[in-house]
């Protein structure tokens, strides 16, 4: 079982880019320079409050957004299991059955958003912690198609994609912490910490209201050290 953790050790983002993309696509990926947090592959360890204080703030724009601009789900390693299946297999608390075509049945998952257990994959969604539309608004509109595909299929950081109840994921939709938080209050600190970590990992900005919501939510949270490997 893959464990969600803001302190987990992660492989480098260079491995992400070459692992998620087919060889030809990886070779064509546009070079990325340094951003506010450093360069792709750098690993940062910073207290949560320092991260929140230093996150770049910018207004958002959804001009030109289409969900199809983030290609997913892909089978990066050609093992017949696409990204959704890989997350289901990794996060199951009761191992499901998998046939030769990677069709998954049975099993049990823990949905942190609801603080509840769910049987069977049909009621499970794989949530992009930072929704695709939110990523677009926060900087992904300027990325290459390859970078957006890598983002949408990020298996290299357990915080980026998580298995949650379909009901709760769809209530979240593309909202940020300004207007949506997990129904289970026990998950709030973990959620905003992971939100900040994924934004840093992909060098995404926050808008003023979002920055304020993150700061207010974390007032009572532990100022934990957060480890992030930059993906771009």
Number of strands: 8
Portion in beta strands: 5-15%
The largest sheet is: 2 strands, antiparallel
Low-confidence stretches: 6-33
Shape: globular
Task: Give the fraction of residues assigned to helices.
Answer: 25-40%
Helices, by number, come to: 9
**Structural class of the helix and strand makeup?**
alpha+beta
What is the CA–CA distance across the termini? 27 Å
Structural summary, described in words:
With 232 residues, the protein is an alpha+beta fold. The protein is 32% helix and 14% strand. The protein has a two-stranded antiparallel sheet with strand order 1-8. A two-stranded antiparallel sheet has the order 2-3. It has a two-stranded antiparallel ribbon with strand order 4-5. A hairpin with a 5-residue loop joins strand 2 and strand 3.
């Amino acid at each position: 079982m893959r464990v969600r953790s803001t302190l987990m050790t992660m492989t480098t983002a260079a491995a992400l880019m070459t692992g998620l993309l087919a060889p030809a696509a990886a070779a064509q990926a546009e070079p990325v320079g340094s951003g506010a947090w450093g360069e792709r592959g750098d690993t940062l360890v910073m207290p949560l409050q320092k991260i929140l204080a230093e996150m770049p703030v910018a207004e958002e724009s959804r001009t030109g957004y289409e969900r199809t601009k983030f290609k997913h789900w892909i089978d990066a390693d050609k093992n017949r299991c696409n990204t959704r299946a890989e997350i289901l297999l990794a996060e199951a608390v009761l191992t499901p059955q998998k046939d030769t075509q990677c069709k998954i049945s049975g099993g049990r998952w823990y949905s942190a958003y609801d603080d509840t257990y769910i049987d069977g994959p049909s009621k499970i969604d794989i949530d992009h912690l930072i929704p695709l539309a939110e990523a677009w608004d926060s900087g992904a509109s300027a990325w290459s198609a390859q970078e957006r595909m890598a983002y949408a299929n990020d298996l290299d950081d357990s915080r980026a994609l998580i298995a949650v109840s379909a009901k709760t994921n769809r209530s979240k939709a593309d909202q940020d912490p300004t207007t949506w938080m997990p129904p289970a209050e026990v998950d709030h600190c973990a959620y905003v910490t992971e939100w900040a970590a994924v934004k840093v990992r992909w060098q995404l900005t926050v808008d003023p209201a979002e920055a304020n919501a993150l700061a207010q939510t974390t007032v009572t949270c532990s100022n934990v050290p957060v480890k992030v490997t930059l993906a771009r």
